[in-house]
Design goal:
- By secondary structure, the chain is of the alpha+beta class.
- It has 2 domains: 97 residues, Killer Toxin P4, Chain A (2-Layer Sandwich); 99 residues, Killer Toxin P4, Chain A (2-Layer Sandwich), CATH 3.30.430.20.
- The strands form 2 sheets. The protein has a 6-stranded mixed sheet.
- Helix 2 packs antiparallel against helix 3 and helix 4 packs antiparallel against helix 5.
- The radius of gyration is 18 Å and the shape is elongated.
- 41% of the residues are buried.
Length: 242
């Protein structure tokens, strides 16, 4: 079910959200380039070079930016791996993301793709250090929460707010944590930004992502806002390696 092209709501089964072994499949992609390139053009050559550079540049730290070419043929790119992902899994994800995105957005000069383990974005327009408010989607756990949702959402905001503060204070702009709900229940959450953002912009991005959650995931046991600059997620089960 799609609410709009720019901000879709994807209804995934509980088991798809639970089992991250499906992470090799993209979560979603958006082709946003207004301009096209042709096969064999200087832009395509520069794009291929950039994607190769990101595959080698990103895995050691989990994040990297780059550009290739000049003038109208210049292309800018960014890749980010989830904060807990190993270098080898990061490299595998970024390596898969480039060819997959070229196949899904053929000859378009702007595109972005998300996996559980990473995101990759490129454009002929320089976008570094700017909050991406256009490329965004939502995922939800289809199971309903068995408690008052407004109280549940207050706990979500408390946890994700704490994780936002932790993320912006750290070098990775990433945080994962948990909050006890009583009755042997625990809420788990994640907050992460692309590292080209300043701490203030990261906080702004994450606050916006958190505020989107009720409209996408009201009454649900889990949900996430996934964007080109930041993402947040909550679940009633642990979903990353720590």
């Amino acid at each position: 079910m799609f609410l709009s092209r720019s901000i879709p709501l994807l209804l995934l089964s509980f088991f798809l959200l639970l089992d991250t072994s499906f992470g090799a499949d993209p979560l979603y992609h958006i082709c946003f380039g207004k301009d096209n390139y042709t096969s064999g053009s200087p832009f395509k050559t520069n794009l291929d070079s950039l994607l190769t550079t990101l595959v080698s540049k990103v895995p050691p730290s989990g994040f990297g930016t780059g550009s290739s070419g000049e003038g109208n043929d210049q292309v800018y790119g960014l890749a980010l791996c989830r904060g807990d992902v190993s270098s080898s899994d990061c490299k595998s994800c970024v390596s898969d993301a480039g060819p997959e995105l070229l196949q899904r957005c053929p000859e378009q000069k702007g595109a972005i793709i998300w996996y559980d383990n990473c995101l990759l974005k490129y454009s002929n327009v320089e976008f570094f250090s700017k909050i991406d408010t256009k490329n965004k989607f939502y995922l939800l756990n289809v199971q309903d929460v068995d408690m008052d949702f407004m109280e549940f959402y207050r706990k979500i905001k408390q946890l994700l707010g704490n994780l936002t503060d932790e993320a912006v204070a750290g070098p990775k702009l990433y945080a994962y944590g948990e909050l006890g709900l009583g009755g042997y229940k625990t809420l788990f959450g994640l907050a992460q930004c692309t590292r080209d953002l300043s701490a203030d912009d990261c906080k702004t991005c994450l606050k916006g992502a958190i505020s989107d959650l009720p409209s996408c995931c009201y009454g649900k046991r889990g949900g996430r806002t996934v964007g080109g600059s930041c993402n947040v997620r909550y679940e009633l089960y642990p979903f990353v390696d720590v």
